[in-house]
Amino acid sequence: QVQLVESGGGLVQAGGSLRLSCAASGRTFSHYAVGWFRQVPGKEREFVAAISWDNYSTYSANSAKGRFTISRDNGKNTVDLQMNSLKPEDTAVYYCAAATTTGLPVSSTMYDYWGQGTQVTVSS
Predict the structure, then answer these.
(1) DSSP code at position 66
(2) Which of 75, 82, 88, 120 could form a disulfide with 69 if both were Cys (CB 3.0 to 4.6 A apart)?
(3) What percentage of the chain reaches a pLDDT higher than 70?
(4) What are residue 72's phi and psi, to 5 degrees?
């Protein structure tokens, strides 16, 4: 089992920045790929970015490229999502998730463990 806890959400004006953090406990976190997803009410959970277990590879959704950066510190069991140039359409609950895979899955069904989420609200 892996337990994930997100933090760092909040209210920010458009153009601002937030840094989300995902803290893991339980089984060896460094064995898992980690992804960030987001969801707004009435819509499906949307892939944002993922990072491989070895910190070697990352992949981001088109909506995140150039603005969001995913990184991890396996020594601290954390994965961060730095979000810059935020837009009102980035408003959502953001979730981190862990997957037992060597790839960078973009489908939420490929992830085994999920955090509870953190709210990000971007005002115009």
Answers:
(1) T
(2) 82
(3) 100
(4) -140, 155
